[in-house]
Write a sequence for this structure.
């Protein structure tokens, strides 16, 4: 066991170094949620959720944290694994005695580090810019929600990577398969409403809104998000099962 | 961190027959089409063995079966005494594999990547030595994406050698390279041989097989046509010493009869014959030349049978 863990850590270190060496990639991974945070956040300053004393930004900032997690875990990991498979890097790994768990564990650990860095950065700037920070005593719940969200969307990222058939389509497929859901889940607009009831119910079944609500609960007092946690757990299980079932070392 | 849960088994003693790779009656089918029709060959410990053949002959398929990536449809395969289909994990600890066109983590640096690969094995070769063997010490801190094609291929070799394997598979190691890159790849392969590694390589380049291999097998359309040393293969193909000379103009114009007892072919400016008895044929040729006042035969050359002749003869037979 210790050997697998040691090898996974080494792999994660290389992944992190590689991430930061491709400065453009790293910059935009960080800048994308930050730009949305600042631009849309500015439009929400001073507004409150209808009929409440909850500031819009208090709900909006954790929504953007959810968005950051999805970009880092789902989009980046999913398209990265698709490209690694397409380029034959996974096949090369397969020629060595490296245990599959050590390799994938390393990728996952690196993804968690990236996701937590981006959310820490986004959350800090959201707090500085809009005064929207987590409730006292909820920091641990927030961190737990972030890790759960990262694991859930990383599993879904691995699952989608097996569906992507070319390196060129990796990014577009990853983005197109979640951005529309993120928009109608109200991640970018805390007051978003007016969906037909059936569409609202459908959107609530996806893990995007669930993750946003789990994180929002750490910022504003809301009903305990029990159903959202179950939702994330089920999607994690489904994503993992599909990823394991469909995983291929070569294209 | 000490490791107690994973044990690396000592390599079993070489198989009694002393072969690193043992292939008998190997068959493979894709979608009902048989692509390997009973392939037989052996690779001995410490030799460079070349599987030579045109594209589509089944070289890569054969290698993938030996590497444990595909289960064969039939036949018996043993690599280092192991069954690759069932014992792939153990095989990968003891065999290095260079696949055709296999990507790298592009942002990794050369030495960093080799070092990571070393960590996968229980008893890796020293980093500095690996860099020297493949002549990449000067670019050790360069990111992989900035390497030339030839340098990447030599990095392939270094990664395959990282675990100090007994056997190395090289699938078409120099395909698509310019002469200088090929020369440096060959030098790296010679270095691997110098370390006592058993090497099984595939190629469709004759000069590569002739230059590197101790023994070759010609694979064509899913069958081994011929196997042996370069010389044996040429001789077994029915070829013999090649004698050639510049076609005298009188002969070309038909003013001189062809020599008796010699199978002389006039190929435009060059006349060629093959013979099992070079001395006798030369005496006959020179006597014939003197008789018809052709002098000492300009450009007279005597060459031992070459692989290329064998190969061309087989390929020509294909079309006929």
């Amino acid at each position: 066991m210790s050997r697998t863990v040691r090898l996974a850590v080494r792999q994660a270190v290389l992944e992190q170094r590689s991430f930061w060496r491709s400065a453009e990639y790293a910059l935009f991974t960080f800048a994308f949620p930050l730009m949305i945070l600042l631009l849309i956040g500015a439009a929400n300053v001073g507004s409150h959720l209808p009929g409440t004393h909850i500031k819009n930004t208090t709900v909006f900032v954790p929504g953007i944290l959810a968005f950051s997690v999805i970009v880092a875990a789902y989009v980046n990991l999913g398209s990265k694994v698709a490209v690694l498979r397409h380029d034959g890097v996974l096949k090369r790994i397969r020629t060595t005695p490296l245990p599959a768990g050590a390799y994938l564990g390393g990728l996952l650990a690196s993804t968690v580090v990236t996701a937590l860095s981006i959310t820490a950065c986004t959350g800090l700037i959201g707090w500085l810019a809009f005064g929207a920070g987590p409730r006292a005593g909820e920091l641990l719940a927030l961190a737990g929600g972030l890790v759960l969200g990262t694991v859930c969307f990383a599993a879904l990222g691995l699952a989608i990577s097996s569906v992507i058939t070319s390196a060129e389509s990796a990014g577009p497929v990853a983005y197109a398969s979640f951005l529309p859901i993120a928009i109608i889940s109200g991640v970018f607009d805390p007051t978003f409403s007016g969906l037909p009831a059936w569409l609202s119910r459908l959107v609530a079944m996806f893990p995007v809104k669930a993750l946003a609500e789990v994180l929002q609960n750490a910022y504003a007092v809301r009903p305990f998000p029990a159903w959202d946690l179950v939702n994330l757990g089920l999607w994690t299980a489904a994503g993992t099962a599909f990823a394991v079932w469909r995983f291929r070392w070569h294209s | 961190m000490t490791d107690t849960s994973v044990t690396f088994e000592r390599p079993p003693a070489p198989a009694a027959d002393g072969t690193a790779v043992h292939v008998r009656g190997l068959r493979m089918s894709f979608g009902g089409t048989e692509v390997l029709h009973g392939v037989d060959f052996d690779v001995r410990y410490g030799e460079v063995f070349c599987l030579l053949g045109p594209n589509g002959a089944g070289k890569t398929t054969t290698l993938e079966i030996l590497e444990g990536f595909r289960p064969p449809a039939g036949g018996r395969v043993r690599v280092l005494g192991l069954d690759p289909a069932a014992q792939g994990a153990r095989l990968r600890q003891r065999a290095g594999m260079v696949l055709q066109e296999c990507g790298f983590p592009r942002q990794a640096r050369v030495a960093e990547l080799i070092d990571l690969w070393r960590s996968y094995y229980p008893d890796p070769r020293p980093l500095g030595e690996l860099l020297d063997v493949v002549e990449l010490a000067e670019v050790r801190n360069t990111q992989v994406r900035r390497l030339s094609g030839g340098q990447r291929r030599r990095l392939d070799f270094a990664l395959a050698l990282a675990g100090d394997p007994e056997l190395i598979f090289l699938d078409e190691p120099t395909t698509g390279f310019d002469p200088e890159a090929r020369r440096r790849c060959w030098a790296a392969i010679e270095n691997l041989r110098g370390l006592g590694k058993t090497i099984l390589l595939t190629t469709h380049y004759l000069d590569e097989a002739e230059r590197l291999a101790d023994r070759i097998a010609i694979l064509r359309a899913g069958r081994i046509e011929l196997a042996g040393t370069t010389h044996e293969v040429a001789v077994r193909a029915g070829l013999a010493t090649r004698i050639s000379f510049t076609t005298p103009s009188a002969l070309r114009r038909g003013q001189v009869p062809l020599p008796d007892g010699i199978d002389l072919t006039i190929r435009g400016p060059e006349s060629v014959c093959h013979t099992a008895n070079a001395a006798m044929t030369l005496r006959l040729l020179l006597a014939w030349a003197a008789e018809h006042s052709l002098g000492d035969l300009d450009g007279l050359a005597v060459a031992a049978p070459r692989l290329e002749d064998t190969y061309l003869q087989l390929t020509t037979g294909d079309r006929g």
